[in-house]
Amino acid sequence: MVNKARAPGITIIITRLRHYFRNMDSLDLQPPASVRGMQELKREKFRKSVPVPRLRVPETHVQRVMPYVKKLLLKMEHLHPVRALEKSREILLHPTPVKNWESLPTEDLQKQEITQENFCFSELELTYENWSANEILKSVLPAEEEGLTSFSRIGHIAHLNLRDHLLPYKQLIGQVFLDKLPNCRTVVNKAATIDNTYRNFQLELICGDADYQVETKENGIPFEFDFSKVYWNPRLSTEHERIVKLLRSGDVLYDVFAGVGPFSVPASKKRCHVLANDLNPVSFHWLQHNAKRNKSLTHIKMFNKDGRQFVLEELREDLLKRLLTTDTTSYAIHITMNLPALAVEFLDAFRGLFKDNELSNLPDNVVYPTVHVYSFAKGENTKELVRDLVESNLGARLDDTLIQGISFVRNVAPNKDMYRVSFSLSHKLLTIPKEKLVAFTRKRSAEEEHLPTKVKCV
């Protein structure tokens, strides 16, 4: 890396050595070209011999020499760059920066009584064990096609979502992961889109144990569940953390689609008052288990219902009691709706949730709940599309007094993104049914079209 520092009338060029060198940038250190296209894993085919630069130094000199060459060491899987010889040590150097003796800091080494006689090239035998999973797969999978870009790790399970052109290689990919990923015992592939009632992944076992009960940690909190029967996506851990950080002790969280508890369990550990719901009976079981495991049962109530029923019954009852009997300026109320394929379709449940006379005596400074609804949007301007989805399902425009933010969560597929739309509920939304407010809005819009246009006189 080259940096330029400027002083009056002077340009100083500073060269910094890289802290490491990529092995795959060196042709010699890549797996044999003959493994390209391999579909059945044959580990012996990865064996090769390559010339590698070395320093052979007396055992007493190793500690003095290492500071000068530590950034030039050859680092590969299951390979010790400093190896014992009889009465000496051999230091393996990376062939990319070290082409010859002059590539080394010769003056410093000579001060330590290390000369060109201590330097040589000799053959090093590499095997399957010396490359990482990523390096193996880059060498095997078709070079002209997109490779395996990512996978998820949930406890002992590696979860893949293989594109069609990689399916012939799935057994090899699975075996490489079992070999290379620490504590990996099961490799699965997403077998179909998530279109069942409970929105959990349909899995195909590629190799390993058919054991789907996992233990994992998210943001320091342990969770346990059956991955084959519930929905869990580790790519959402940052988003879960963002919402939990908004909460303070004494706040209220209504979690409409709680799953196994990634919002609800951390919130209850923070001593928030939590009502958590999920339709999937297996998710509900593990939600209860995780709340108990994290010793947060005193701050959470859990339900196994359809999301709409939960809003119309438990959420309505608890929220009405709080609006009527507590000071809502002293704490915050949040509603999470994390079911991005369907959640917006439940927003109309908040419309006319209360009769107008039920909320008629509320103080002027009452603070209504904040809704965090998640949704997918597919198209060009996904941020505008997701706002339109929320407003059309809610049956109301969200002006600047209600909208709190539209936050990008992650890219799901080309032109398909996931967002969180955060907005405040209001007296009007909670007391006027969707159909009446839509008709009222249309009437006002029609009247405004016939108003005379104001012209500024100049």
Overview in brief:
The longest helix has 19 residues, at 307-325. The chain is built from eleven helices and 19 strands. It is α/β, with parallel strands linked by helices and 458 residues long.
Structure description:
The protein has 458 residues and is an alpha/beta fold. It is 25% helix and 26% strand. It has eleven helices and 19 strands. It has helices at residues 62-69, 106-111, 133-140, 170-180, 237-246, 264-269, 281-293, 307-325, 382-394, 427-431, 434-449, and strands spanning 2-7, 10-15, 48-58, 82-85, 88-92, 119-126, 152-154, 157-160, 186-192, 202-208, 213-218, 221-226, 252-255, 273-277, 300-303, 333-337, 370-378, 403-413, 416-424. The protein has a seven-stranded mixed β-sheet with strand order 15-14-13-16-17-19-18, sandwiched between helices. It has a four-stranded antiparallel β-sheet with strand order 4-5-3-6, with no helix packed on it. A four-stranded mixed β-sheet has the order 7-8-9-10. It is elongated and about 95 Å long.
What is the element layout, followed by pairings?
Blueprint: E1 2-7, E2 10-15, E3 48-58, H1 62-69, E4 82-85, E5 88-92, H2 106-111, E6 119-126, H3 133-140, E7 152-154, E8 157-160, H4 170-180, E9 186-192, E10 202-208, E11 213-218, E12 221-226, H5 237-246, E13 252-255, H6 264-269, E14 273-277, H7 281-293, E15 300-303, H8 307-325, E16 333-337, E17 370-378, H9 382-394, E18 403-413, E19 416-424, H10 427-431, H11 434-449
Parallel strand pairs: 8-9, 13-14, 13-16, 14-15, 16-17
Antiparallel strand pairs: 1-2, 3-5, 3-6, 4-5, 7-8, 9-10, 11-12, 17-19, 18-19
